[in-house]
């Protein structure tokens, strides 16, 4: 095993181009619970229906897990980025109140 590592968790990962042309990080090892199939070097995200249909027909192929789904470091980073501080929330609230007050004054001036 010798490949790139995730900058958030250090786990070894692979990169594949998606059918839309975006680069997608994939866990290094195959995962039967994954929903990504690699066809001719391109990552295809499968729906639950596609996965179930392949299983019913006995045509399952190896699957991988998108690394975003399993990366603890990425999940922690996203969670931290989404949490504004109390001070940021207060500033946003004050900014909204100022805008609303300005709108109210503009309407009052029009009367």
How would you portray this structure in words?
The protein has 111 residues and is α+β, with helices and mostly antiparallel strands. The protein has a domain at 1-70. Helix content is 45%, strand content 17%. Strands 2-1-4-3 form a 4-stranded mixed beta sheet. It starts with 12 loop residues before the first strand and ends with a helix.
> What's the helix count?
4
Low-confidence stretches: none
Fraction of residues in H or I helices:
40-55%
Overall mean pLDDT = 85
Would you count the extended β strands for me? 4
Beta-strand residue percentage: 15-25%
Overview features:
111 residues, alpha+beta, 4-stranded mixed sheet, 4 strands, 17% strand, elongated
Brief summary of the model shown:
The chain is α+β, with helices and mostly antiparallel strands and 111 residues long. The chain has four helices and four strands, in the order ββββαααα.
Topology overview:
Layout: E1 13-18, E2 23-27, E3 36-39, E4 42-45, H1 48-57, H2 67-70, H3 72-82, H4 86-110
Parallel strand pairs: 1-4
Antiparallel strand pairs: 1-2, 3-4
């Amino acid at each position: 095993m010798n490949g790139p590592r995730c900058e958030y968790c250090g786990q070894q990962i692979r990169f594949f181009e998606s059918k839309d042309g975006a680069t997608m990080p994939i866990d290094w090892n195959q995962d039967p619970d994954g929903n990504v199939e690699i066809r001719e070097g391109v990552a295809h995200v499968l729906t639950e229906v596609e996965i179930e249909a392949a299983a019913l027909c006995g045509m399952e192929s190896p699957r991988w897990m998108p690394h975003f789904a399993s990366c603890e470091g990425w999940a922690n980073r996203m969670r931290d980025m989404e949490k504004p501080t109390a001070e940021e929330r207060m500033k946003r609230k004050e900014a909204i109140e100022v805008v609303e007050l300005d709108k109210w004054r503009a309407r009052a001036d029009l009367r």
